[in-house]
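Re-run requested by the PI after the first attempt was lost when the workstation crashed. Everything re-entered from the original request form. Ligand of interest: fe (ii) ion.
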Amino acid sequence: MDMPGAEVVKKRIAEIYPSVYLIYGQNRSAHAYLIKGDAKTVLIDSCLPDGVAGVVDALAEVGVAPEDIDLVLLTHEHIDHAGGVPFFGKKSLVAAHRLAANKLTLQDEFVLMNKAFDSSADAFRIDLLLTEGAVIDLGRYELHVIHTPGHCSGAICFYEPNHRLLFSGDVVMATGIVGGVLQSGNISDYIHSMRRLAALRVEHLYPGHGKISDRAEADIQKGIERLETLLDESKMLFKVVQNSQHGFDHIMRSLRDLNR
Ligand SMILES: [Fe+2]
């Protein structure tokens, strides 16, 4: 039981699989994951800019200093995942999908979610552009890049096939929660991405938010069902709008008029 007046310190880091650590996201930040391979050490995602000190403290708890990280891998471009890169990128290589990298290096405010998190990151560079099928060999663990657009266009998951681990960012979370369709995302790409994840037979799901899960296949399936429902509901919505008094015509006319 907590003593009256005692400060409740939230758990910062936990080993969830041998040499794989979850660094818990604080204050709306996404989780980060540390993987200590036999040859290389990587950090997956980097939290919000104001969470960097907490990540550094968490790393120190397991004897890792920022300069020990060889590579920072970004699951996608949103600031709650990429905001720590101006710090970690000074010492480590940074990698992201080429579509995420493009938005990040151009500081495209329309898609980085800075406003939603009331935060912004200093400019930084992405050293390595990842595409579908790339493999990162850490020694003991190898991470396969799977391009999974839908939440946003630059979303990737990292899959470890020998241990059936999936680092899923915001694509899918425990109990099948999905990250939503944000700017540059769309529902049909999302469903396609999730069906590809379903084919992998993942066992351990390590998402960007919430709890980790050892029921990954069921979680992914539930996520697909949610997205299919969303697609059906969006079709109903469009039908209602089309059957309304004005339909889309006045909206389309307004759009065309903008060019005059
Ligand atoms: Fe996101």
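Saved to the shared folder this time. Residues 1-6 have pLDDT under 50 and may be disordered.
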